[in-house]
Design a protein that fits this description.
heterotrimer; A alpha/beta (211); B alpha/beta (245); C alpha/beta (486); B: 245 residues; alpha/beta; Rossmann fold; 4-stranded parallel sheet; 14 helices; 8 strands; 52% helix; globular; C: 486 residues; 6-stranded parallel sheet; 4-stranded mixed sheet; 22 helices; 49% helix
Amino acid sequence: MPGDEGGRAEVLARIRTALSTGASAPTRIPRGYRAGTGMATPALIELLTERLHDYGTSVRRCEAGGVAQAVREALAERGARRVVLPPGLTLDGAGPAGVEFLAGDGLSPEALDATDGVITTAALAIAETGTIVLDGGPGQGRRALSLVPDYHLCILHASQIVGIVPQALERLEPGRPCTWISGPSATSDIELDRVQGVHGPRTLEVILAGS
Amino acid sequence: MRIALFVTCLADGLFPQVGQATVRLLERLGHEVTFPQAQTCCGQMHTNTGYLREALPLVRRYVEVFEDCEMVVVPSGSCTGSVRHQHAMVARRFGDEALARRAEAVAARTYELSELLVDVLGLEDVGAYYPHRVTYHPTCHSLRLLRVGDRPLRLLRSVAGIDLVELPDAEVCCGFGGTFAVKNAPVSTAMLADKMRSVLATGAEVCTAGDSSCLMHIGGGLSRLNAGTATVHLAEILASTQDSH
Amino acid sequence: MPYAPRGVGHLRGDQPFPVASRAALADTQLRRNLGKATRTIRAKRAAVVAELPDWEELRAAGQAIKEHTLAHLDSYLEQLESQVTAHGGTVHWARDAHEANRIVTALVRGTGAAEVVKVKSIATDEIGLNEALAAAGITAHETDLAELIVQLGHDRPSHILVPAIHRNRAEIREIFLREMPGVDPGLTDTPAALTEAARLHLRRRFLSARVGISGANFAVAETGTLCVVESEGNGRMCLTLPDTLITVMGIEKVIPSWRDLEVFLQLLPRSSTGERMNPYTSMWTGVTPGDGPQRFHLVLLDNGRTAALADPAGRPALHCIRCSACLNVCPVYERTGGHAYGSVYPGPIGAVLSPQLTGVEDNASLPYASSLCGACYDVCPVRIDIPSILVHLRSRHVEEAARARRVPTAEAVAMAAASWVMASPARYAAALRGGRTGRALRRGGRIRRLPPPLSAWTSVRDAPAPPARTFREWWRLEHGDPDARG
């Protein structure tokens, strides 16, 4: 862009001049905070479930092979009819009766808005904060798919749960667009009364498979 | 022990009873108190208002007067805070590294009263008697700069006859803040109103603290309201005995 | 080092703090709302911080990372630029608010769009972006509920995190009824109803938006990743659905590595909203084909930050991660609110950041808008020693004022006189004795009235009557010689 060159050179020059006063700064970052929790999977499952409940997110437990059944039950309870299925997500057995699965590709935001919900997998979950992370991997799709529909059903496996944030960042691949979800959207902007359900999916449900 | 007293300009000029109580208390505990007459002021008011150049001679004076003393006691959390956290900075600001190091050395031997009693003399019960309902206000400098923690409360709890009640919202600033009380008097007053409300809610006869400045502010407000609650410095309570309370 | 220019943006108030705060103190609704809000968030913050066994270690790491980053800011910004560019984004450098506004306006124009959706970004408020876009015929729709309330109410934000805290639900309902097209005339004022009205109003905009404008909480130099932390989902909407995304970010927001996010993503949510984690955090790197905006522009903003960088004692103000924990514990802010500070950065951090961005003399009253209680320093997640920086800026003000004036102020004269007196024990002792004449002012043991400027004291408080004897006079009487044994 014309004129941008001047800005870059000048800002960098200002920074260098500002730093020439030579104030000292640490060469080593003290990282005495926790790197992990040492929690075993059952404890992680319990903690994650408790934290998800705190956010008003329901958690459906099932065996590793029982995901498809859990999905059918969740969708039936929800009364969802038109559900988005991201690329890479397959369900064993017959789909739920009366439910039409839509491939996410090519759906405009308006079209997504007209669906009843979306099912995704996740990259991982963080037990301490009750966080689910999506990074666009198989079964998750592009970000709009898990943003616009009003109902988000997320399939997690117990082996995907880590204890704390540092462990999550270790496992995630930088460079992929990702979304960290900790409960349904909320605002406390009106007199500090917390109201759930603003722009993101107002209902988040989790299927937690395995042990 | 031989303990030098830095009485502070505020106590020297307006609240001599605070200095007197400190002397009486330490003498009663068997120590020798000296009062180097060449002392004046720690310079906190100047430093905190931005007049560092004018604070420098006061820093120098403090260092010169006290650097040969084994130990210095100060009945003020804010003055101790200034000595400990600001004197060297002021010296360095004007390129006097030697003075800065001397200031740091003296600061290491300068103690706020409750620090001296608890940490150096190892005491919680100083043999005091004070049969009144008292509430304690932890002044901001004592609380956050010096981190005296619960030392003053431990000392107060050991006072015979005392009826100690907890102050609600104790850790909220009283609103004095030095020249803040004059430059931003309306906000200072709003903060004072809430502090007085907390004090009066305790039903205490006396509000105490380790800083004459905050007590002057809170006490001035209570006095204006004829609230019937007075402010008394921590030193005065600890110095009080059966014979003199 | 150039400061943020005058005449653009919102870093300077119309009135100095002591004047502006007077009106705020009398605003009973503000006092109640703000008191309740800050008390609530304080309690929440304390609870979630107490849960972590390694909070102090996190703070130490956060402080060190920020210090280190600023000490090498040029190389980290260059690295960030290189990574963003390698991943399909474009980086622009804005020297000041004017330039940033010009760049963003040109970028929006280039898309042909006449409106944009915005995620809350204090940096864009700082530079007055919305006004600049409006002047170019481009409408910027704020999408944060609070910012929407502020925008529809033709108002200004009063808190970094909860910008509409000065509004109650009845006022918000009135604003929506008046300004929101297509709103239900039977709208009630329950927060749920108001939020639903906002949701419907904004959803139309989100689904059709072509250009989104955001700020950024963090930008990772190592990977070129940007990170936005939010609660409502409007961030995700603006960052994902439009075809073009423009992010305006202060140069101090860059962090060195991907790993460093682990520190800040723990410090920020607990410090700001008092939650273990905020509902949504979005991270993206440049452009990802088929997912989100296909055109991404990062505008790096100086606007006085290099001036702050150049002052080693003031520089730590740039460590700020905009959590607002300091606002929520400040007894001054709690009673005056944000408008009294005149800048989009109010409260304790505002008092040290705004004057450094604008030059101290343009915000000379802000460093004094504090009793130096230190509560802010205790809660700052990156350990910014705000009280020390306040004292430092006060000294800069005194020096700059002295340089600018030929005749010293009355205050400067008084301070110099006091220093002169107190530098000499003899003069000092004489002055103490002289102070005794004040005893004549006492009535019933107290002094109720003093002449100005000390009348500010006695207008609300009694002053102590000077004693009959000073301490040193008592000492001399009791102990004889000076320095005598007790």
